[in-house]
Amino acid sequence: MKRWFITGTDTEIGKTYVASLIIRQLVKQGYHVACMKPVASGCEHTNDGLRNDDALKLMAAANVVAPYEVVNPYAFEPAIAPHIAAEEAGQLIDIDRINALAQTIEADYLVIEGVGGWCVPIADGCLLAELARATADEVILVVGLRLGCINHALLTAAQIERDGILLKGWVANHVDPDMQMQSQNIETLQSLMPCPLLGIVPWHSSALNESGVTMQMNSECALLNMLDLR
Ligand SMILES: Nc1ncnc2c1ncn2[C@@H]1O[C@H](COP(=O)(O)OP(=O)(O)O)[C@@H](O)[C@H]1O
Ligand SMILES: [Mg+2]
């Protein structure tokens, strides 16, 4: 099973959106695809317990769906930094437990969404990188295209490499329709990023209808790099 960890240049830059597109692409290719959102803050109380919108969106895209408690074992109500949310809830985020749950999933691909950006603490002295290292083989960095994204993308990519985790590539996500010089920003990033551009996701005014949307893949590398891995 291939295990991809989806991180981003920030929160609200399209990790869930792009992860869902990647899952749908893989499903369309005939693969069995599972998902996890191991740590989520910003959850709603339901009759079934706390539920997170990101986890539900990923589950809706996947075709191998584990029980909710496996997909999202750490769900916190307030939309605050996860290590603070965990502390408030009197819980300790246990990477070994998350990894054990990940091992119960059987699929061709497991797509795991991180939380926030890359340098997010999940417990005392423990950053998200440790969770990524324990649960995934490769990281995909979603770059939300907006002013400031070049700096965030380069810093994030450098840190992922420093953390010794394979950075498979980055995805350019048009999250701000008003951003100026979008293609020039992509070109600059292409020349400076230490990993390939896997795909470009246009801004979709109908982002809510995600099932109808496909990713415009970089013709040179993306389809092969992302989907033909075995
Ligand atoms: N390419 C896109 N086109 C239009 N809207 C997008 C696009 N990517 C993300 N969005 C919207 O931006 C918001 C944040 O995206 P989301 O995937 O939830 O970010 P993250 O997971 O990084 O917090 C959501 O409302 C989502 O629908
Ligand atoms: Mg998300």
What does this structure look like?
The protein is an alpha/beta fold. It has a single domain, classed as P-loop containing nucleotide triphosphate hydrolases (Rossmann fold), CATH 3.40.50.300. Helix content is 36%, strand content 25%. It is built from nine helices and 13 strands. The strands form four sheets. A seven-stranded mixed sheet has the order 2-7-1-10-11-12-13, with helices on both faces. Helix 8 links the parallel strand 11 and strand 12. Helix 1 packs parallel to helix 2 and helix 5 runs parallel beside helix 6. It is globular, with a radius of gyration of 17 Å. The C terminus is likely disordered. Adenosine-5'-diphosphate (ADP) binds next to helix 1. Adenosine-5'-diphosphate binds next to helix 1.
